[in-house]
Amino acid sequence: NKLPFVPSKVDPSQNGALGPVATDKSRTTSSTNSTPDSSGSRAGLFRTPISGGVQSATFAHGLPPPALAVRNLMEQARFAHLCTVMSGMHHRRAGYPFGSLVDFANDSMGHPIFSLSPLAIHTRNLLSDPRCTLVVQVPGWSGLSNARVTIFGDVYPLSAEQQEWAHKQYVAKHQQWASQQWGNFYYYRMQNISDIYFIGGFGTVAWVDVKQYETIQPDKIAVDGGEQSLKELNAIFSKPLREFMSAEGEVDDAALISVDSKGIDIRVRQGAQFNIQRLAFDVPYKVETLEEAKRALHKIIKTSSK
């Protein structure tokens, strides 16, 4: 029951036409981030969980615009929740949403590619009804203040000729682990993306234009800034960042969970409480490499210690 390959098409009437949701401006500032600041001081560097809609935070705190934020998130995340429509073969539950945890990779347009077993319920569901949503969370997820995106679309099996190409995308993202699935799994792609709903934290909500998402290029450092890069940055900066951030209250742990051209997201622990804070790079250029990120972080920490 293999479905034929369906080329990627986007219905312009469904590509996020609702536009960004208005944010509550009364909640977009706090005592730590009320004004833009490019001097490397603490003011303007952090976005606390309760503050900042996409529009104001993008200006004041060096956040990527929503379409780019989603592309970066899709590059950095390796796992997601796939929600399919339960097929008729499960007659008592037919029509109900079925959620499952899957791994994925992306093609050059940001369309998700999946490696699915023919025995899995979600695979059978997709063969019956290709409509689904994919919910992707920022790596290091710790609560509702963290970024996540819901992508609506239609998933179909790739043709036999495209299986090797899809496998290469998987190996590039998942390294050796992906090759261990090659004999038992078949590759699928979200051929059509109809809508993208992005939440960057409390007060940060936007329907992202699909065509803009498909054409924008993710930050180079977000693509290259995989687990190994984050491990290296944490080995160097975890302790200095913890001390740096303790100036406004004791911080027990600070760990980098993502990096893009404009800054880093840090998971902060204070006792049993976790939140995500944003630290913007204070440099006049896009940060594109691991070495540039190191220099930018050294600059912020050095400036704050004066």
Q: In order across it, which strands form the biggest sheet?
A: 1-2-3-6-5-4
Distance between the termini: 67 Å
How would you name the CATH homologous superfamily of the largest domain?
Answer: Electron Transport, Fmn-binding Protein, Chain A
Mean pLDDT: 77
CATH topology of the largest domain: Pnp Oxidase, Chain A
Structural class: alpha+beta
Q: Please indicate the count of domains.
A: 2
Portion in helices: 25-40%
For this structure, the quaternary state is single chain
Tell me the β content: 25-35%
CATH architectural label of the largest domain:
Roll
Order of secondary-structure elements: HHEEEHEEHHEEHHHEEEH
Q: Regions with pLDDT < 50 over 5+ consecutive residues?
A: 1-60
CA-based shape: elongated
Topology, number of strands: 10
CATH class of the largest domain: Mainly Beta
Region (Disordered): 1-45
Pfam family, one: CREG_beta-barrel
Domain CREG-like beta-barrel: 70-214
Protein name: CREG-like beta-barrel domain-containing protein
Reconstruct the topology from this structure.
Elements: H1 54-61, H2 66-76, E1 79-85, E2 97-106, E3 112-116, H3 121-128, E4 131-137, E5 148-157, H4 163-174, H5 176-179, E6 186-201, E7 204-207, H6 210-215, H7 220-224, H8 227-245, E8 253-259, E9 263-270, E10 273-280, H9 290-304
Antiparallel strand pairs: 1-2, 1-4, 2-3, 3-6, 4-5, 5-6, 6-7, 8-9, 9-10
Helix pairs in contact: 8-9
